[in-house]
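Figure-free illustration: sequence to structure, shown twice.
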Amino acid sequence: MSTVDRVRQLVAPLVADQALELYDLELAGGVLRLLVDRDGGVDIDAIAQLSRTVSRTLDEHDPIAGHYTLEVSTPGLERPLRTTDHFSRAIGTAVKVKTRPGTDGDRRLDGTIVGADDRAVTIRLSDGTDRVLAYDDIERARTVFEWGPSNDGKKAKA
């Protein structure tokens, strides 16, 4: 079992106990990053409580060799897309995708996810064409927050 799998086994029940969803877990470059979410959003108190609980549990079980930094946060408005579930849940959402070197076609894509299954995602590009990408061909992907008119009809400012 990989280190990430061991950490996931320890962390997932702690996240669920706080009525949160484990959106993503990543261990890279000495940083363990947990992204959590729930309907209606996650407040700073929930993040702080979860961070303390996860930190104690990881200290007790010591699944990660060496030093690391624990980061607990939400995925934010522009969410990373790394799993098939992430892509499936983002159908209808604007995305930016960068493909791996050697993948046919443009490496950088902007469009809207119009389909996703267990092997590939379909992105509708701005010219109306669809591009099907195997997940293995994707280097990086994220949703894009699109600023629009506020409730009073005025454009939002960045």
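We now fold a second protein in the same way, so the two outputs can be compared directly.
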Amino acid sequence: MAFTVSETVAVSRWWWTFILRGLLAVAFGVLAFIAPAWGLAILVALFGVWALIDGIASLWTGIRTRRVARNWWLEIVEGVVSVLAGLIALALPGFAAGILLLLIAAWAIVTGALQIWNAIRLREQIQGEFWLGLAGAASILFGILIFLFPAQSTLTLVWLIGSGAIVIGAFLILLGWRLRGVHELGKLDAAHDFTR
């Protein structure tokens, strides 16, 4: 089911949340490459913060678009999953590394699937919706790789997580810029006097 024009315009008002989520993901990924010696415990804490902020942004978007978007609840689901993953990572850092890796992998797959679903819904309203679909596919691939290779060294894991975060973040930034363009066009259209 595709977004309607009014739903697309409503979502485009929050273009900056996609860019913010993307920038945070890229920053997280770069930090993982710059300071790999921090170890898995700090990486898990950074993941927890990233997932919390990403989840809050998704919840905010879902709540703000609930009156105009038919499937606003998908953003809420993505937000709840991200917030729960972040809280568990922050509250229980003593979990075995394998459990935390499975948590991160599950989070990446669920949020990726929801991003692909939203991209499919956006395809009839804007060009460039494939960026969200690519972010979702990258997120799913990232989760699958963690499931397949949980026993790799901490350094490899740090680089894998950092790479995934950078790719996902870049796709979200590109989508945010595209939605910003839709928002600007919507403002111009709203300001135009069609009675002349």
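Summary for the second example: Residues 5-188 form one domain.
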